[in-house]
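Hey L., structure's done. Input below.
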Amino acid sequence: MARPTTIPVVLGVLLLAGCAREAPAPAPRTSVDIHLPVDTRIVEAVVPRNATLDGLLRQHDLPVELVNAAVVSVRSVFDPRHLRADHPYRLVTSVDGLLREFEYQIDADRFLRVFRPDGAQPAVLEAEVLPYQKETEVVVIRGRIDSDHPSLIAAMTEAGEEISLAIGLAELFGGQIDFQSDLQTGDTFDVLFEKTSRDGQFAGYGAILGARFDNAGREYQAYRWVNPVTKKAGFYDQEGRSLKRRLLKSPLKFDWRISSGFSRRRLHPVHRIYRAHLGVDYAAPAGSAVVAVADGVVVSAGWAGGGGRQIRLRHAGGMETYYLHLSSFAKGIRRGARVQQGQLIGRVGRTGTATGPHLDYRLRRNGVFVDPRREHARQPPGEPIPAIQLADYREARDGVLRQLSTILLAEAPGPVPADTPDAVKVAEPAADTSR
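Output:
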Protein backbone atom coordinates (compact mmCIF):
# COMPACT_ATOMS: atom_id res chain seq x y z
CA MET A 1 0.00 0.00 0.00
CA ALA A 2 2.97 2.22 0.28
CA ARG A 3 3.76 2.45 -3.43
CA PRO A 4 0.57 4.16 -4.64
CA THR A 5 1.01 7.04 -2.23
CA THR A 6 4.74 7.56 -2.85
CA ILE A 7 4.66 7.94 -6.63
CA PRO A 8 2.48 11.10 -6.74
CA VAL A 9 4.71 12.85 -4.28
CA VAL A 10 7.83 12.17 -6.33
CA LEU A 11 6.11 13.32 -9.51
CA GLY A 12 5.01 16.51 -7.78
CA VAL A 13 8.56 17.25 -6.76
CA LEU A 14 9.80 16.63 -10.32
CA LEU A 15 7.11 18.92 -11.78
CA LEU A 16 8.03 21.70 -9.35
CA ALA A 17 11.68 21.31 -10.24
CA GLY A 18 10.82 21.64 -13.93
CA CYS A 19 8.83 24.76 -13.31
CA ALA A 20 11.74 26.23 -11.37
CA ARG A 21 14.05 25.72 -14.34
CA GLU A 22 11.61 27.45 -16.67
CA ALA A 23 11.07 30.50 -14.36
CA PRO A 24 14.03 31.02 -12.03
CA ALA A 25 13.33 32.83 -8.78
CA PRO A 26 14.50 36.50 -8.82
CA ALA A 27 17.84 37.21 -7.16
CA PRO A 28 17.77 39.15 -3.87
CA ARG A 29 17.64 43.01 -4.45
CA THR A 30 20.64 45.01 -3.38
CA SER A 31 20.89 48.84 -2.99
CA VAL A 32 23.27 50.52 -5.49
CA ASP A 33 23.93 54.19 -6.45
CA ILE A 34 22.77 54.97 -9.97
CA HIS A 35 24.80 57.80 -11.60
CA LEU A 36 22.71 59.62 -14.16
CA PRO A 37 24.53 61.90 -16.62
CA VAL A 38 24.34 65.60 -15.66
CA ASP A 39 22.49 67.42 -18.45
CA THR A 40 23.54 70.96 -17.50
CA ARG A 41 26.65 72.84 -16.52
CA ILE A 42 26.33 75.91 -14.25
CA VAL A 43 29.01 78.59 -13.93
CA GLU A 44 28.74 81.35 -11.32
CA ALA A 45 31.45 84.00 -11.40
CA VAL A 46 32.12 87.73 -11.72
CA VAL A 47 32.89 89.67 -14.87
CA PRO A 48 36.67 90.10 -15.30
CA ARG A 49 38.28 93.45 -16.06
CA ASN A 50 38.01 94.78 -19.63
CA ALA A 51 35.59 92.00 -20.59
CA THR A 52 32.97 92.25 -23.32
CA LEU A 53 29.76 90.24 -23.48
CA ASP A 54 30.95 88.55 -26.65
CA GLY A 55 34.30 87.60 -25.13
CA LEU A 56 32.73 86.53 -21.84
CA LEU A 57 30.44 84.02 -23.58
CA ARG A 58 33.14 82.77 -25.95
CA GLN A 59 35.46 81.91 -23.07
CA HIS A 60 32.90 79.31 -21.97
CA ASP A 61 33.22 77.50 -25.34
CA LEU A 62 29.79 78.42 -26.65
CA PRO A 63 29.33 78.08 -30.42
CA VAL A 64 29.94 81.29 -32.34
CA GLU A 65 26.39 81.41 -33.72
CA LEU A 66 24.96 81.20 -30.18
CA VAL A 67 27.25 83.97 -28.94
CA ASN A 68 26.19 86.20 -31.83
CA ALA A 69 22.51 85.43 -31.20
CA ALA A 70 22.90 86.22 -27.51
CA VAL A 71 24.60 89.58 -28.16
CA VAL A 72 21.95 90.56 -30.74
CA SER A 73 19.11 89.72 -28.34
CA VAL A 74 20.74 91.65 -25.48
CA ARG A 75 21.11 94.82 -27.58
CA SER A 76 17.34 95.14 -27.72
CA VAL A 77 17.08 95.63 -23.94
CA PHE A 78 20.58 96.48 -22.63
CA ASP A 79 23.74 98.07 -24.02
CA PRO A 80 26.47 95.37 -23.84
CA ARG A 81 29.07 98.14 -23.56
CA HIS A 82 27.77 98.76 -20.03
CA LEU A 83 29.01 95.38 -18.83
CA ARG A 84 30.94 96.13 -15.64
CA ALA A 85 33.86 94.35 -14.00
CA ASP A 86 33.22 92.47 -10.74
CA HIS A 87 29.45 92.24 -11.32
CA PRO A 88 28.24 88.64 -10.80
CA TYR A 89 26.84 86.49 -13.59
CA ARG A 90 25.41 82.98 -13.94
CA LEU A 91 25.65 80.83 -17.07
CA VAL A 92 23.72 77.58 -17.62
CA THR A 93 24.68 75.40 -20.61
CA SER A 94 23.67 71.91 -21.73
CA VAL A 95 26.13 69.03 -22.03
CA ASP A 96 26.23 69.52 -25.79
CA GLY A 97 27.35 73.14 -25.36
CA LEU A 98 24.05 74.95 -25.96
CA LEU A 99 23.09 78.04 -23.99
CA ARG A 100 20.13 77.54 -21.70
CA GLU A 101 20.26 80.69 -19.59
CA PHE A 102 22.53 83.63 -18.82
CA GLU A 103 21.96 86.12 -15.99
CA TYR A 104 23.99 89.25 -15.24
CA GLN A 105 23.51 91.64 -12.30
CA ILE A 106 23.17 95.13 -13.79
CA ASP A 107 22.87 96.83 -10.40
CA ALA A 108 21.31 96.27 -6.99
CA ASP A 109 17.81 96.52 -8.47
CA ARG A 110 17.92 94.84 -11.90
CA PHE A 111 19.40 91.88 -13.74
CA LEU A 112 19.73 90.85 -17.38
CA ARG A 113 18.40 87.45 -18.45
CA VAL A 114 19.09 85.69 -21.77
CA PHE A 115 17.20 82.43 -22.43
CA ARG A 116 15.91 80.07 -25.12
CA PRO A 117 12.09 79.95 -25.22
CA ASP A 118 10.47 76.53 -24.85
CA GLY A 119 10.41 74.67 -28.16
CA ALA A 120 12.61 77.20 -29.97
CA GLN A 121 15.65 76.36 -32.06
CA PRO A 122 19.00 76.51 -30.19
CA ALA A 123 20.03 79.76 -31.90
CA VAL A 124 16.73 81.53 -31.10
CA LEU A 125 17.39 83.51 -27.92
CA GLU A 126 15.47 86.23 -26.10
CA ALA A 127 16.63 88.79 -23.55
CA GLU A 128 14.88 90.79 -20.84
CA VAL A 129 15.77 93.11 -17.96
CA LEU A 130 13.98 92.15 -14.76
CA PRO A 131 13.76 93.67 -11.28
CA TYR A 132 15.01 91.72 -8.30
CA GLN A 133 12.33 90.59 -5.90
CA LYS A 134 13.04 92.41 -2.66
CA GLU A 135 11.53 92.75 0.76
CA THR A 136 11.43 96.09 2.55
CA GLU A 137 11.04 96.69 6.27
CA VAL A 138 11.01 99.87 8.30
CA VAL A 139 13.70 99.86 10.98
CA VAL A 140 14.65 102.11 13.90
CA ILE A 141 18.20 102.21 15.26
CA ARG A 142 19.94 104.23 17.94
CA GLY A 143 23.61 105.15 17.92
CA ARG A 144 25.94 106.92 20.33
CA ILE A 145 29.15 108.87 19.94
CA ASP A 146 31.66 107.82 22.60
CA SER A 147 35.39 107.39 23.11
CA ASP A 148 35.37 104.00 21.36
CA HIS A 149 33.20 105.26 18.49
CA PRO A 150 34.10 108.95 18.05
CA SER A 151 32.84 109.32 14.47
CA LEU A 152 29.43 108.92 12.86
CA ILE A 153 30.69 106.04 10.74
CA ALA A 154 32.05 104.19 13.78
CA ALA A 155 28.84 104.73 15.76
CA MET A 156 26.69 103.62 12.82
CA THR A 157 28.79 100.49 12.33
CA GLU A 158 28.46 99.69 16.04
CA ALA A 159 24.68 100.00 15.63
CA GLY A 160 24.91 97.25 13.00
CA GLU A 161 24.44 99.33 9.86
CA GLU A 162 26.51 100.19 6.79
CA ILE A 163 28.58 103.28 6.01
CA SER A 164 26.10 104.36 3.33
CA LEU A 165 23.46 104.98 6.01
CA ALA A 166 25.93 107.17 7.92
CA ILE A 167 26.56 109.16 4.75
CA GLY A 168 22.82 109.57 4.24
CA LEU A 169 22.38 110.85 7.78
CA ALA A 170 25.31 113.25 7.36
CA GLU A 171 23.77 114.61 4.17
CA LEU A 172 20.46 115.05 5.96
CA PHE A 173 21.91 117.25 8.72
CA GLY A 174 24.76 118.62 6.60
CA GLY A 175 23.48 122.19 6.89
CA GLN A 176 23.28 122.10 10.71
CA ILE A 177 26.10 119.82 11.92
CA ASP A 178 29.74 119.61 10.91
CA PHE A 179 30.27 115.88 11.37
CA GLN A 180 34.01 116.17 11.67
CA SER A 181 34.39 118.98 14.20
CA ASP A 182 31.00 119.34 15.94
CA LEU A 183 30.54 115.80 17.33
CA GLN A 184 31.05 115.28 21.06
CA THR A 185 31.13 112.29 23.38
CA GLY A 186 27.60 111.53 24.51
CA ASP A 187 25.88 112.65 21.30
CA THR A 188 23.10 110.26 20.23
CA PHE A 189 21.00 109.72 17.15
CA ASP A 190 17.83 107.82 16.26
CA VAL A 191 17.05 106.97 12.64
CA LEU A 192 13.87 105.56 11.08
CA PHE A 193 14.58 104.16 7.61
CA GLU A 194 13.69 101.58 4.98
CA LYS A 195 15.94 98.54 4.68
CA THR A 196 15.71 96.08 1.80
CA SER A 197 16.80 92.46 1.49
CA ARG A 198 16.99 89.93 -1.33
CA ASP A 199 16.91 86.21 -0.62
CA GLY A 200 17.40 86.99 3.05
CA GLN A 201 20.54 89.05 2.43
CA PHE A 202 20.98 92.80 2.89
CA ALA A 203 20.35 94.56 -0.44
CA GLY A 204 20.51 98.26 0.41
CA TYR A 205 18.69 101.14 2.02
CA GLY A 206 15.56 102.93 0.95
CA ALA A 207 14.54 106.36 2.19
CA ILE A 208 15.34 107.80 5.59
CA LEU A 209 11.89 108.60 6.97
CA GLY A 210 12.86 110.52 10.08
CA ALA A 211 15.79 111.17 12.39
CA ARG A 212 16.82 112.88 15.60
CA PHE A 213 20.37 113.95 16.42
CA ASP A 214 21.32 115.21 19.87
CA ASN A 215 24.53 117.19 19.39
CA ALA A 216 26.13 118.88 22.41
CA GLY A 217 22.76 119.04 24.16
CA ARG A 218 20.93 120.51 21.18
CA GLU A 219 18.42 118.30 19.39
CA TYR A 220 18.01 118.42 15.62
CA GLN A 221 15.02 116.73 13.99
CA ALA A 222 14.29 115.72 10.42
CA TYR A 223 11.11 114.39 8.85
CA ARG A 224 10.65 113.31 5.27
CA TRP A 225 7.60 114.78 3.58
CA VAL A 226 6.37 114.50 -0.01
CA ASN A 227 4.68 117.64 -1.29
CA PRO A 228 1.28 116.50 -2.61
CA VAL A 229 1.35 119.16 -5.32
CA THR A 230 4.91 118.91 -6.68
CA LYS A 231 5.37 115.23 -5.65
CA LYS A 232 8.88 116.14 -4.51
CA ALA A 233 10.30 114.80 -1.24
CA GLY A 234 12.18 116.97 1.21
CA PHE A 235 13.27 117.02 4.85
CA TYR A 236 11.91 119.47 7.39
CA ASP A 237 12.30 120.23 11.07
CA GLN A 238 9.55 119.95 13.69
CA GLU A 239 8.11 123.33 12.72
CA GLY A 240 8.02 122.53 9.02
CA ARG A 241 11.12 124.49 7.96
CA SER A 242 13.30 122.97 5.26
CA LEU A 243 16.57 121.44 6.44
CA LYS A 244 18.19 122.39 3.17
CA ARG A 245 20.49 125.34 3.75
CA ARG A 246 21.95 127.49 1.07
CA LEU A 247 25.42 126.17 1.89
CA LEU A 248 26.59 122.85 3.34
CA LYS A 249 28.78 123.26 6.41
CA SER A 250 31.65 121.45 4.69
CA PRO A 251 32.62 120.39 1.15
CA LEU A 252 33.95 117.13 2.62
CA LYS A 253 31.86 114.53 4.43
CA PHE A 254 34.34 112.55 6.54
CA ASP A 255 38.00 111.90 7.32
CA TRP A 256 39.27 115.46 7.43
CA ARG A 257 40.57 118.04 9.85
CA ILE A 258 41.08 121.79 9.51
CA SER A 259 44.80 122.33 9.08
CA SER A 260 44.63 126.05 8.39
CA GLY A 261 41.85 128.61 8.76
CA PHE A 262 40.90 131.84 7.02
CA SER A 263 43.44 134.56 7.74
CA ARG A 264 44.53 137.91 6.42
CA ARG A 265 48.10 137.18 7.51
CA ARG A 266 49.44 133.63 7.62
CA LEU A 267 52.95 132.19 7.38
CA HIS A 268 52.91 130.26 4.10
CA PRO A 269 54.15 126.66 4.72
CA VAL A 270 56.14 126.58 1.46
CA HIS A 271 57.22 130.16 0.69
CA ARG A 272 57.82 130.98 4.38
CA ILE A 273 56.44 134.49 4.06
CA TYR A 274 53.39 136.08 5.66
CA ARG A 275 50.45 136.63 3.36
CA ALA A 276 46.68 136.27 3.31
CA HIS A 277 45.10 132.83 3.24
CA LEU A 278 41.61 133.48 1.92
CA GLY A 279 40.16 130.04 2.54
CA VAL A 280 40.04 127.03 4.85
CA ASP A 281 42.42 124.10 4.41
CA TYR A 282 40.96 120.66 5.07
CA ALA A 283 43.65 117.98 5.48
CA ALA A 284 42.16 114.75 4.11
CA PRO A 285 43.32 111.50 2.50
CA ALA A 286 44.10 111.76 -1.20
CA GLY A 287 41.07 110.78 -3.24
CA SER A 288 38.48 111.88 -0.66
CA ALA A 289 35.24 113.06 -2.26
CA VAL A 290 34.73 116.81 -2.66
CA VAL A 291 31.13 117.98 -3.13
CA ALA A 292 29.49 121.23 -4.17
CA VAL A 293 28.31 123.14 -1.09
CA ALA A 294 25.37 124.64 -3.02
CA ASP A 295 23.54 124.48 -6.33
CA GLY A 296 25.46 126.33 -9.00
CA VAL A 297 27.20 126.50 -12.37
CA VAL A 298 30.82 125.62 -13.15
CA VAL A 299 32.72 128.79 -14.04
CA SER A 300 36.00 126.96 -14.61
CA ALA A 301 37.65 123.60 -14.04
CA GLY A 302 41.35 123.51 -14.84
CA TRP A 303 44.87 124.35 -13.76
CA ALA A 304 45.28 127.39 -11.52
CA GLY A 305 49.04 127.72 -10.97
CA GLY A 306 49.88 127.27 -7.28
CA GLY A 307 46.26 126.23 -6.70
CA GLY A 308 46.76 123.15 -8.84
CA ARG A 309 43.62 121.63 -10.27
CA GLN A 310 40.84 124.00 -9.28
CA ILE A 311 37.06 124.18 -9.66
CA ARG A 312 35.20 127.47 -9.42
CA LEU A 313 31.42 127.50 -9.00
CA ARG A 314 28.96 130.39 -9.26
CA HIS A 315 25.87 130.37 -7.04
CA ALA A 316 22.79 132.55 -6.66
CA GLY A 317 23.00 135.77 -4.65
CA GLY A 318 26.51 136.80 -5.74
CA MET A 319 28.23 133.75 -4.15
CA GLU A 320 31.18 131.86 -5.64
CA THR A 321 33.10 128.89 -4.22
CA TYR A 322 36.61 127.65 -5.05
CA TYR A 323 38.06 124.14 -4.58
CA LEU A 324 41.87 123.98 -4.93
CA HIS A 325 44.64 121.32 -5.12
CA LEU A 326 42.32 118.60 -6.48
CA SER A 327 43.73 115.37 -7.83
CA SER A 328 40.93 114.99 -10.39
CA PHE A 329 37.58 116.32 -11.54
CA ALA A 330 34.37 114.31 -11.47
CA LYS A 331 32.79 113.22 -14.74
CA GLY A 332 30.92 116.04 -16.47
CA ILE A 333 32.55 118.86 -14.49
CA ARG A 334 33.36 121.43 -17.14
CA ARG A 335 32.63 125.07 -17.84
CA GLY A 336 28.90 125.75 -18.01
CA ALA A 337 27.83 122.50 -16.32
CA ARG A 338 25.16 122.75 -13.64
CA VAL A 339 25.75 121.07 -10.28
CA GLN A 340 23.51 120.35 -7.34
CA GLN A 341 24.25 120.74 -3.65
CA GLY A 342 26.08 117.65 -2.39
CA GLN A 343 27.08 116.50 -5.90
CA LEU A 344 30.55 115.00 -6.33
CA ILE A 345 32.73 117.46 -8.24
CA GLY A 346 36.28 116.25 -7.59
CA ARG A 347 38.79 114.44 -5.38
CA VAL A 348 41.28 115.68 -2.80
CA GLY A 349 44.88 115.88 -4.01
CA ARG A 350 48.11 117.83 -3.60
CA THR A 351 48.47 119.47 -7.00
CA GLY A 352 50.08 122.89 -7.30
CA THR A 353 51.90 124.35 -4.30
CA ALA A 354 51.03 121.95 -1.50
CA THR A 355 52.94 120.11 1.22
CA GLY A 356 50.42 117.27 1.44
CA PRO A 357 46.96 116.16 0.29
CA HIS A 358 44.34 118.69 1.29
CA LEU A 359 41.49 120.84 0.01
CA ASP A 360 41.74 124.61 0.03
CA TYR A 361 38.10 125.75 0.07
CA ARG A 362 37.25 129.40 -0.54
CA LEU A 363 34.05 131.44 -0.57
CA ARG A 364 33.58 134.78 -2.28
CA ARG A 365 30.54 137.00 -1.75
CA ASN A 366 29.91 139.95 -4.06
CA GLY A 367 33.52 139.85 -5.22
CA VAL A 368 35.12 139.71 -1.74
CA PHE A 369 36.55 136.56 -0.12
CA VAL A 370 34.98 135.84 3.27
CA ASP A 371 35.56 133.26 6.01
CA PRO A 372 33.59 130.17 4.87
CA ARG A 373 33.00 128.84 8.38
CA ARG A 374 31.54 132.08 9.65
CA GLU A 375 29.38 132.43 6.56
CA HIS A 376 28.04 128.90 6.96
CA ALA A 377 27.31 129.39 10.67
CA ARG A 378 25.17 132.50 10.18
CA GLN A 379 22.81 130.96 7.63
CA PRO A 380 19.10 131.54 8.29
CA PRO A 381 16.63 128.64 8.68
CA GLY A 382 15.32 126.97 5.52
CA GLU A 383 12.14 127.89 3.69
CA PRO A 384 8.98 126.84 5.58
CA ILE A 385 6.19 124.69 4.22
CA PRO A 386 3.28 126.89 2.99
CA ALA A 387 0.65 127.38 5.68
CA ILE A 388 -2.03 125.71 3.57
CA GLN A 389 0.00 122.45 3.62
CA LEU A 390 1.09 122.49 7.25
CA ALA A 391 -1.75 120.27 8.46
CA ASP A 392 -0.76 117.59 5.95
CA TYR A 393 2.86 117.86 7.02
CA ARG A 394 2.07 117.66 10.74
CA GLU A 395 0.07 114.50 10.22
CA ALA A 396 3.00 112.88 8.42
CA ARG A 397 5.44 114.18 11.05
CA ASP A 398 3.40 112.76 13.92
CA GLY A 399 3.30 109.36 12.25
CA VAL A 400 7.09 109.30 12.07
CA LEU A 401 7.32 110.48 15.69
CA ARG A 402 5.16 107.56 16.83
CA GLN A 403 7.45 105.13 15.05
CA LEU A 404 10.61 106.76 16.40
CA SER A 405 9.16 106.54 19.92
CA THR A 406 9.23 102.75 19.77
CA ILE A 407 12.95 102.87 20.49
CA LEU A 408 12.21 104.66 23.75
CA LEU A 409 9.67 101.97 24.65
CA ALA A 410 12.23 99.32 23.82
CA GLU A 411 14.66 100.85 26.31
CA ALA A 412 12.11 100.59 29.14
CA PRO A 413 11.97 97.39 31.25
CA GLY A 414 9.72 94.69 29.82
CA PRO A 415 8.67 93.91 26.27
CA VAL A 416 7.34 96.44 23.77
CA PRO A 417 3.52 96.17 23.70
CA ALA A 418 2.30 94.29 20.62
CA ASP A 419 -0.36 96.91 19.96
CA THR A 420 2.05 99.85 19.87
CA PRO A 421 0.84 102.17 17.08
CA ASP A 422 2.88 101.86 13.89
CA ALA A 423 5.26 99.44 15.62
CA VAL A 424 8.46 98.76 13.73
CA LYS A 425 11.52 96.63 14.19
CA VAL A 426 13.92 98.18 16.71
CA ALA A 427 17.64 97.56 16.43
CA GLU A 428 20.00 98.49 19.25
CA PRO A 429 23.80 98.33 19.34
CA ALA A 430 25.07 94.98 20.57
CA ALA A 431 26.43 94.96 24.10
CA ASP A 432 30.21 95.02 24.35
CA THR A 433 31.26 91.88 26.20
CA SER A 434 34.95 92.09 25.30
CA ARG A 435 35.96 93.86 28.52
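The chain has eight helices and 23 strands. The chain has a mean pLDDT of 83.

-- N.
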